[in-house]
């Protein structure tokens, strides 16, 4: 329908009008990642030394002082929450991961130091046995290689209590054992920690994207894989089932992990569950961006913000990302 004015069309509906300037784009923008939605995963080790992590360029295993300093630096740039992952000395590992329940262990000491210095930073802890377990599994392994669910849950409860006593704001079971949310909730309440929240890794997939993280902690399984407890990447309905169970067991927040390859899962859970939802941009996702940027193939800052926007748009309220501090700086 060419009009009388040369080659112009009479097009009353023109979606491009809403993109005509940064101001108008700002008015119609549906999703914006914000620093306050970001959770910063930090690795901690004994001693005062900070070490570069070979498998995760740009990340460090922090000594306690470095950990507190990095937390403060990130906080000053807008990050409000950290999640701690300990690198435990091999000599402290055993088949039942006893060190995970030690009130004077590395994580409880790290929590106390951070909370003493930055009480307004939310400290989240990962509850699972793999950093402490001589088999490198998230649970206790029996003679025939099977993971013992209920025995593991007892230990997870004691681990969560050690974190709560040290001042953790949120405990995050990442082990994928059945029934651990209700058991941890009961254990916390029994000791009057009813204000400590549970962020459940509800839909944690048996993913190949965790490799660099396991390199950082020396926590790779010594034998077998994690497919009898972590989820099959092929399944989506099963994630909804896990999420509904965790909601019924009393979880305060749920998580999907990894994030980027599982945006459909984030969206499904968003539509089915009314709890706040977190997504974990894991080590392999981080490294794909890092390495492509290091080769000069992509614009790191732009890609980081685009991935975070995509994860938020899919329905996540919060994002765990090794880029948290970097992204907070970009978002200022
Ligand atoms: C273990 C745990 C893993 C991650 C977080 N918690 C690894 C695993 O399940 O083997 C992975 C995080 C990442 O890859 O960034 N409970």
Question: What would your notes on this structure say?
Answer:
Helices cover 38% and strands 16% of the residues. It is α/β, with parallel strands linked by helices and 332 residues long. It has a single domain (33-331), classed as Aldolase class I (TIM Barrel). The strands form 2 sheets. An 8-stranded parallel beta barrel has the order 1-4-5-8-9-10-11-12, surrounded by 9 helices. Helix 2 crosses helix 3 (106-117), helix 4 (149-166) crosses helix 5 and helix 7 packs across helix 8 (263-272). The protein is globular, with a radius of gyration of 22 Å. The chain starts with 21 loop residues before the first helix and ends with a helix. The relative contact order is 0.14. The mean pLDDT is 96.
């Amino acid at each position: 329908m060419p009009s009388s004015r040369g080659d112009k069309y009479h097009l009353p509906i023109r979606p491009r009008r809403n993109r005509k300037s940064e101001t108008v784009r700002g008015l119609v923008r549906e999703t914006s990642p914000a620093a306050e939605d970001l959770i910063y995963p930090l690795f901690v080790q004994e001693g005062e030394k900070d070490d570069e992590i070979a498998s995760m360029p740009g990340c460090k295993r922090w000594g306690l002082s470095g950990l507190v300093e990095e937390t403060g630096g990130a906080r000053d740039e807008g990050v409000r929450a950290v999640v701690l992952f300990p690198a435990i000395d091999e000599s402290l590992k055993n088949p039942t991961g006893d060190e995970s329940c030690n009130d004077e262990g590395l994580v409880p000491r790290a929590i106390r130091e951070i909370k003493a210095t930055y009480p307004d930073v939310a400290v989240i802890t990962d509850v699972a046995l793999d950093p402490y377990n001589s088999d490198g599994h998230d649970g206790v392994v029996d003679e025939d290689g099977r993971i013992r669910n209920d025995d593991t849950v007892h230990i997870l409860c004691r681990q969560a209590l050690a974190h709560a006593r040290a001042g953790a704001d949120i405990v995050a079971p990442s082990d994928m054992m059945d029934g651990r949310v209700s058991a941890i909730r009961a254990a916390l309440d029994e000791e009057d920690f009813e204000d400590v929240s549970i962020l459940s890794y509800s839909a944690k997939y048996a993913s190949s994207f965790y490799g660099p993280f396991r390199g950082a902690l020396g926590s790779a399984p010594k034998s077998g894989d994690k497919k009898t407890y972590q989820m099959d990447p092929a399944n989506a309905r099963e994630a909804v089932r896990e999420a509904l169970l965790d909601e019924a067991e009393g979880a305060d927040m749920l998580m999907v992990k990894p994030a980027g390859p599982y945006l459909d899962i984030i969206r499904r859970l968003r539509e089915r569950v009314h709890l706040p939802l977190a997504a974990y941009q894991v080590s392999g996702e981080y490294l794909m961006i890092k390495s492509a940027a290091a080769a000069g193939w992509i614009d790191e800052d732009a890609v980081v913000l685009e991935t975070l926007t995509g994860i938020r748009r899919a329905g996540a309220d919060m994002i765990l990302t090794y880029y948290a501090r970097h992204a907070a700086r970009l978002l200022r």
